[in-house]
Amino acid sequence: MPRDFRGIGARRPQLQSNGRNSILHYEKKKTSLKPPLITFRLQSSSLTLGRHQNVPPQAAPRRTNRSPPAPNPALRPIRHSLSAPPGTGSGTRLSVHLPRPDPKYAETIFAVPRTASGKSISANERKAGRVPSIVFEQEDGQHGGNKRLISVRTNQIRKLVGHLGRSFFLSRLFDLEVRSDFDSEDDIVERVRVLPRMIHLHSATDAPLNVTFIRAPSHALLKVDIPLVFRGDDVSPGLKKGAYLNTIKRTVKFLCPADVIPPYIDVDLSELDVGQKILMGDLKVHPTLKLIQSKDEPVCKITGARVSEQKKTK
């Protein structure tokens, strides 16, 4: 008789005779483990899914009518008439509701004269924290002369370009004061109003490499690439339908009197629908400004629409 097997859930084995061999059969006791029954009692019929029973539902946040952010003050039009240039009479008004340069960014650029030019001299100027520059004489907007070699401070030019932007920097008049030394306030060689004509920036660091200025007296006519500022895109019918704005021109070249150079030109998109465009002749500028490019060249266009809108039109 074999020993008793006292495993869990096993009975005493029973010997059954089947010829010569004896087979032990084990009958295992069936066991079933059921999880304990957990009963939940709802205390309130207003209980919502995903929240604890004892935590009351939170109130919805209040909606506040927030006004849209104010535009950049450098691009905000000033509602004043432009001052008349000398010689036009005190009672003559040039324009109304046209943008004027913001006096906040009016700054005098300080410079020192240079005696020579060249690649090695320009490299030494940049290492010393100065930018090699040139001032030209501008008579009728086409020919230059009376060249003066100067050097300006790198930090000052970099700050102006960073605050205004490259296009706005090249369309703004500045007072240039050439001194024998940057620290000598009494020894002034020349003080003149200038317009930045060209600036070269480093491709990696955006550091100014050289700057070209043009003298801008009151009687001068200057060719200026005036930047465009697009407004009204939030209420444009075409953009609300799902179309997009195709910007073709960022600047437009005008021949301007030195006293009537606008800092930018407003382009109104509030009435443009899909397929419509604005030409250079449609820009609202001062009448003394002469467009150098063709009037039929487009500035921007509302292009494309949603697929659902295209199916509806078909």
What do these coordinates show?
This is Ribosomal protein L25/Gln-tRNA synthetase with anti-codon-binding domain. Keywords: Aminoacyl-tRNA synthetase, Ligase, Ribonucleoprotein, Ribosomal protein, RNA-binding, rRNA-binding. The chain is mostly beta strands. Among the domains are: 104-217, Ribosomal Protein L25, Chain P (Beta Barrel), CATH 2.40.240; 219-314, Ribosomal protein L25, C-terminal domain (RNA Polymerase Alpha Subunit, Chain A, domain 2, Beta Complex). 11% of the residues lie in helices and 32% in strands. The strands form 4 sheets. It has a 6-stranded mixed barrel with strand order 3-5-4-8-7-6. The protein has a 4-stranded mixed beta sheet with strand order 12-9-11-14, with no helix packed on it. Strands 10-15-13 form a 3-stranded antiparallel beta sheet, with no helix packed on it. The radius of gyration is 40 Å and the shape is elongated. The N and C termini lie far apart (96 Å).
